[in-house]
Specification:
The protein contains seven helices and eleven strands. By secondary structure, it is α/β, with parallel strands linked by helices. The strands form two sheets. Strands 2-1-3-4-5-11 form a six-stranded parallel beta sheet, with helices on both faces. It is elongated and about 60 Å long.
Length: 242
């Protein structure tokens, strides 16, 4: 399979390209990065050759250009970028009416299972206090992480209308039913997500830790294989697992 890799010079783009180059079933049709300076990396989609799929590890600011190109070429897209605005999410949903799109705030199967467990546990303890703590490296641009928001959305399937509380400062008593989300940035940590579900008598802690960025590259390639041949629509990790 031939993949166009966007965000090719970023941390994940580099890992993904290395993984593709070591896999005989895959090849890099084109590497695209607007900040590229080295030979062989394109600064835009202009001049991209034919390919089977686009795998995006760039920046959410490039969503419009990415989707326009994908729709023009009728290519499926795996969007692994986080931090999208509501307007960009609407663009993704609209484009999914014409092409298959796999969109996930985290490309780990383990995180998908964490979301399922968090949802089930919240349903069993409907009045418990729930806090999500995510920890990432000090270079991460968005906070809270896309994965933390995924977890909150999964919990909300068991708790309709539960509001997010992003951090706490000053006079900020906990509101009934809210989901607290806290972002920690330190060192070179790949990613840790914890869900703490507490009643007056007990606490259940659900935790996932990514040891290497290769985890997300593997997930992106699995998503790409799943997406090829699918009808237009919006897919995610739960779609793939099911």
């Amino acid at each position: 399979m031939r993949a166009i890799v966007t965000g090719a010079c970023g941390r994940m783009g580099i890992v993904l390209r290395q993984m593709i180059e070591s896999n005989p079933d895959w090849s890099v049709a084109a590497a695209v990065d607007p900040f590229a300076t080295q030979e062989g990396i394109l600064n835009s989609f202009d001049g991209c050759p034919d390919a089977d799929i686009i795998i995006d590890f760039s920046n959410h600011a490039g969503t419009a250009a990415l989707l326009n190109f994908a729709q023009e070429r009728k290519l499926p897209v795996v969007i692994s970028t986080t931090g999208h605005t509501p307007e960009e999410l609407a663009m993704i949903a609209q484009a999914a009416k014409e092409i298959p799109i796999f969109h996930s705030g985290n490309m780990s199967v383990g995180v998908a299972l964490l979301c399922t467990l968090a949802k089930k546990t919240a349903a069993v303890f409907p009045t418990a206090d729930i806090e999500i703590v995510e920890t990432h490296h000090c270079h991460k641009l968005d906070a809270p992480s896309g994965t933390a928001l995924m977890l909150a959305d999964a919990i909300r399937e068991s708790r309709e209308d539960a509001p997010n509380q992003l951090g706490r400062a000053g006079h900020c008593p906990r509101k009934s039913g809210e989901i607290g989300i806290h972002a920690v940035r330190r060192g070179e940590i790949v990613g840790i997500h914890e869900v703490l579900i507490s009643t007056p008598t007990q606490t259940i802690t659900l935790r996932h830790e990514a040891h290497t960025r290769a985890l997300f590259a593997e997930g992106a390639l699995d998503a790409a294989k799943f997406l090829c041949g699918q009808a237009p629509g919006l897919y995610n990790m739960v779609s793939m697992i099911n």
